[in-house]
Every structure is written in C-alpha cells, then in structure tokens.
Amino acid sequence: MRQIGVIAWLILCATSQAQTVHDFVLGAKDAVGATPAEVVCGPQVESMSWSPSGRYLLVSRQVLSLNDQQFVQIVSKTATPNTIPMPKSEIIIWDNVARKAKTIFSYPGDKLQVSPFGWFAKSDVCVLAITKNSNDVNLANNLVLVTASSGAQRTIPYVPNRDTPVLSLTQDFLAIETDSSIPAPTYYGPGSAATVVGPPPGAGGDVRSAPIPVLRQLSLKFYKPSGGSTNSINLPPSTVVGCIWSQSGVVCCATKERINNKNVSSWYSINPTTLAVQKMATKPVFESKPSQDEVIVIDAQQKLKDKSNAKVVVLTQKTAKSGDSVNLTTDGDQGVLNDQATATAFRFQGAAVVRNIVHIPADVFAELKKAAQKSDLLSDVKQVGLGLIMFGTDNDDKFPSKDSDWQSALDPYLRNSRLLDGFVYTFAGGSMTGIENPASTELGYKEGPGGRAVIYADGHAKWVPNP
Asked: Which of 141, 326, 346, 452 satisfies CB 3.0 to 4.6 Å to 335 for a cystine?
C-alpha cells in the first residue's frame, strides 16, 4: 500500500499540466516512477557502482579543499604545486535502506591512491585497489575487501604491474594472476646493437640482461569474499592469454606452442574450487553480466530553448512508447541502475545523487492516472469558477453572457489562460444574486475519463460520472 501511495503522489505531480517533467513511464507490464532525489555526497565524484543486492552504492571521489586565496590562485593561473594541496582519495558506501552514507577510506592523494575495483558477484563485498604514491615504508600496495554492511576490511597483498585481479561476473570469486616471469639473457653480437635470444654456439659477444622475458611464468590464486584463498596454481608455461572467466564458472587461459613448425593454440580451464587444470575441446564462451530486462537508465543530451545542449539522465522502459521517459535530472551524468531496478544513482553537478524507483502494475497505474486526471480537472474548473465570481464582483454582480467573448473577459482573472482549454461554459449569464440555488446551478465543466468536472455558482466543484 505504501508503494501505491508513493506512485499516486508521483502521478498527481506528473499529470499536472503545469509540470514540465514527467515522473513516470509506462511499459508493457508495469509503470515505474522516480521518488525525490537524495544527496549521497559531493562534489568531485568520479565513479559509482551498486552492490549485487542493490542495497549499497560504492562511490569514489577526489576531495580538493581550497581556501579563498588558493581558489583565486587557480583562477588567475598563479598557483604552484607547493601552494595547492593534493586532493584526498575518498571511498563512500551509501546504504539505501538506512538512508545513510559512511566514509570507509580517506587518505591524502600524495600518499595513497584508492580505486574501486568492483563487487563480488553474489556478496555485498567490494574490492578496492590501493596503490602508494610515495616512498613511505609504512604504506603498501594492497587489495582491500570491504563488507558493505559492517565496513569490515581484509587485506590482500598486491603488486601493480605484476598481479592482475579479475572478478567473476557470476561466481563469488576473485582471481589474481601473478606474472613471475624472469627476464631472459639476450645476446649482443660483436660491434652490433642487433639482438638474438641466447648466444649462438661458437659466436663471440656477451650476454646481458634483457627487459623482455622469453618464457612467461604465470600463477593463479582464488579469493572468496571472506578473504580466504586457495593455494597458488601454475598456468601452462606457454600461456599467452590468462585469467578470463567463462560462462561455465571456470577461469580459462590460452596457450600457443610451436609444433612441427606451426603455431598451435589451445585453451585450458582452471576450476576455482578443485584447482583442476583441464585442456578444453572447444574455445570457451566468456561470461557476461546479465542485463536488466526492461528498465533502462541512460545519459542523454537535451536541446534547450537557446538551442544549446544540456546533459540529462533519463529513465525509460524497453516497451514504453517512443519518447516516453522520466527525466531524472538535468546537468547530470553517469546514470547507473541497480540490478533489481529499484534505485538509480547519477552525478548532479559533481555530487552523487540517488532516486528510488517504484514499480506498480499497469492496470493499477491506469486507475491511479484516471484519479489524478480527475483531481487535475476539478482543480482547473474550480479556478475558472473563482475567476467567474471575481469577474461578476467587478461587473455589478453579473456573470458574462455565454454568447459573449467570455474567454477574453475572464483572462485577467486567471493565473493561466490554459485553464480555459476544454472548458465548456454553460451558464446563460446574468445576475449572480438572482440565482435561487447556487450550490446546484452549473456554470460549466471539463470532460474527463468517465465523467465531467463541474463547477457550480457557489464556487464548489464536483465530479459527475457519465450516465
């Protein structure tokens, strides 16, 4: 019932003729509406992503705090690296049930850089990649697993440019591929800069260290959301492409070998539970995240009256009528929908903002829309009736004649001339004081779904169903 009440309020707003932004969109099965916006944090937001349950929003931002003097220096281009502070790396988790934001990481950018890496596929546990930007021995490069509900953290050692973390999109595993390749010696011929691998037998010259390894030595380890890990397993020595998750829930790697003067490629699978390595008969089908079937949030451009373009974030449905959409915000971008299509987040002028999405069945929506239209029409005729009464008060207590240009006569007494659109004036005109029963004397009406909104001489309005 609460859900229907919220949508009813949205429909009343959206169906008002004075409302320029629609707050609902109807698809084949249901209607979706966006609740009022809530600010998560801001500004200077860089990225946002929802947890698998759709409850938590992970926000990354760079926070730069400037005083007035520093701001002037930047604008006047007189700032130097010594006068402007480094921004702080900050990670925030928004709880969309408790409606609260919690900062779980904040550190000066000249010391550490933190980047969201993603979420485990079936757990509300996110992965952060932390890299140090200084020579401080007390700091280290790490992957940090953070439980969104409690903020609990587990640390995994991580070496950039050596370790490659890969989260599964469908399985609750994080795979880390480690490249321990050792640079191979390279032969430099006498008096020549040309290189060949290894010194040929009987050739002169010397052997030096080369930056490019001849044989890759890759290993793989799997981590669960709890931080527990499997033993490390070596990949085939001829691996050229490693650590790709497949739809069958295993990690795949590709090898290339020289056999009988031909390059032969093969695929191998590594089971994250048993660590079994098996040669595959066919090339794997790589995993992809299932897309939300119906509701869509997209970044778009909107043409303004001055013919300039404004960034907007739009909510729509695949089965909605062409052009039917909800404008979630103007001057916004990075719209992201949770997997359950119950909430969306976007940037508004650099700040992270959330709007919940409410679903109701199409038939219920149709009835609520009719009720909202009736309410809108009753409001319109009541304002027209008030205009008629004010006109009569200024004109010797006489209503305008039905055969006169009564629309032009009423216009000064209405806040908006569009109130007369569709209004049928039925009173013949004449004295206001001579009406015997004002409460039952009709002045006019507007037609609507299944009836009419009627205004009476005493100023009250009533919905009269069709016979």
From this structure: 346
